[in-house]
Write a structure and sequence with these properties.
Mean pLDDT: 92
Largest sheet: 5 strands, mixed
Structural class: mainly alpha
Number of strands: 5
Distance between the termini: 70 Å
Number of helices: 25
Number of domains: 2
Strand order of the largest sheet: 2-1-3-5-4
Low-confidence stretches: none
Shape: globular
Radius of gyration: 24 Å
Order of helices and strands: HHHHHHHHHHHHHHHHHHHHHEHEHEHHEE
Helix content: over 70%
Length: 483
């Protein structure tokens, strides 16, 4: 399949429409309530002076580059959920034309346009674009670094290796997962040298090695002021998080999340078949590109398991663009097969375009149907839950926040002096006082794993009064009354 990387006037017009639509979808309702990770980012990073942000690594909840950009945005425009999320919104929008450019570099305009169109209206991409975290920055840098490698392989121009080094360094500063992606790229280059295009790599191996070294040095320079904090965090194993966020849990959570944006399990299974067809097609036609698209995700997961770190589906969000390109290619491959089966009645290339168009329309419709859910609810509704408890409880009754995921937003973000409970013993002590307890909690899997006795007491002795739904998996906020 031939590719043409130069943009035409029709490309620019098409991208202009996608950018306008994408910006509107990502800015709409971006000012709703923050969820726990966003609140921690604001409290522990963004609100601090810039000098503290670049020299302190409080936890892996901190995505340093995002904290820097969000701090600058808040300083310029004032603190609000929309401003806090502004860097994520902008990089989410910028990923749309970048995915189109990646597509043009490896496949046809039809497939590149279909992938960019699906990304524009994607429920999951919009959700992450309205999330004050570094995931859309990471996605942008992964796309850009991959694009740079592909263009270098095609043109041999050294400037693309400079682009690769810079994109990778900034990507690592946005999220350390970029380091694993870079290691995967190095592995792909080794495979390219051994089995695919030995002459190309051998002729320019010094420049290629310099690009990887440059990316590493830039990453080290970014993290050097906070190196002690980073080392201390990653040498300490968080037992509860690891017990909850297991590979099996992550797989189940990912399937549930996909059902929001792609419908029922049969549709997801069909998508898996199409993805497999796209994988085979790319491996046959452009094996090095296929490896650049496909290897980073499993390598990231395997290394996370090896390092005994918790695994969340959002850690592989960076691969969403590649996934769309492969799925769209799968539609084209199946269309080509269908055309051949008609014995000339339908030209294979035309059949490929028809199937891609149908697949794209189906994906767009399903995603648009999911968007109202994401707009209807905030990611987590701490403010409404707190307001409800304070309106309903009597003056002699006690409001209780269970665990860090509730107490931090209630006490430090909303400024409420609620009682905090971490253990069953603390809970029993509070119950000894006169007056009922109004208990609020979220992310129940962490309570169940870390404090099973407390969880049993809450479930068996405290009737549930109300739930406040949110779009974060497991982030529904529950309010119970304990006599």
């Amino acid at each position: 399949m031939t590719t043409e990387t130069r943009l035409k006037s029709t490309d620019i017009a098409f991208l202009g429409v996608l950018l306008a639509v994408g910006a509107g979808l990502r800015l709409y309702r971006a000012d709703t309530g923050l969820w726990f990770d966003e609140i921690v980012t604001l409290l522990d990073s963004v609100r601090h002076p810039l000098g503290t942000i670049v020299t302190h690594f409080p936890s892996n909840n901190d995505h340093p580059l995002y904290s820097v950009l969000a701090h600058l945005a808040v300083t310029a425009f004032g603190e609000s959920p929309l401003v806090l999320r502004l860097p994520s919104v902008l990089f989410g929008i910028a990923a749309i034309p970048l995915l189109y450019l990646v597509g043009l570099a490896v496949t046809s305009r039809v497939e590149a346009g279909a992938s960019a169109l699906i990304l524009t209206v994607s429920y999951h991409h919009i959700w992450f674009s309205q999330n004050a975290r570094g995931y859309t920055l990471l996605l942008f840098c992964v796309l850009l670094s991959t694009y740079a490698l592909v263009r270098w392989r095609e043109t041999g121009r050294q400037r693309w290796l400079w682009v690769y080094a810079i994109a990778t360094g900034f990507g690592a500063y946005a999220h350390l997962t970029m380091v694993l992606v870079c290691l995967t790229h190095a592995l792909v280059c080794v495979v390219d040298w051994l089995w695919i295009d030995r002459a190309r790599i051998q002729a320019a191996w010094k420049q290629l090695a310099a690009a990887f070294v440059g990316a590493g040095l830039l990453t080290i320079a970014f993290y050097a002021p906070m190196l002690a904090d980073v080392s201390a965090f990653f040498t300490t194993r968080t037992a509860t998080s690891t017990e909850v966020a297991t590979p099996f849990w992550a797989m189940v959570a990912a399937l549930r999340g996909l059902q929001v944006g792609f419908g029922a399990l049969p549709a997801i299974a069909f998508g898996g078949i199409v993805f497999a067809a796209g994988t085979v097609s790319y491996l046959k036609e452009k094996p090095a590109v296929a490896l650049l698209f496909l290897l980073p995700l499993p390598v990231t997961l395997l290394l996370a398991v090896a390092l005994q770190r918790p695994i969340f589906p959002r850690f592989v969000f960076f691969a969403v663009g590649f996934g769309l390109l492969v799925i769209v290619r799968g539609g084209a491959a199946l269309g080509t097969i269908l055309g051949r089966l008609t014995n000339g009645r339908l030209e294979p290339s035309r059949a490929a375009v028809v199937v891609v168009a149908l697949l794209t329309c189906g994906a767009v419709v399903v995603s648009l149907r999911s968007l109202p859910y994401g707009y209807r609810y905030p990611k987590q509704d701490y403010e409404q839950a707190v307001r409800f408890v304070e309106q309903e409880k009597q003056p002699h009754e006690v409001a209780v926040a269970v665990g860090e995921t509730t107490s931090t937003p209630v006490e430090r973000y909303l400024g409420r002096p609620w009682a905090r409970v971490e253990t069953a013993a603390q809970f029993q002590t509070l119950r000894a006082d006169p007056g009922d307890l109004w208990v609020m909690y979220t992310f129940p899997s962490y309570i169940e794993a870390g404090q099973p006795e407390l969880w049993t007491m809450l479930q068996s002795e405290c009737p549930e009064i109300r739930e406040f739904e949110g779009t974060v998996a497991g982030g529904t906020i529950s309010v119970r009354r304990c006599p």
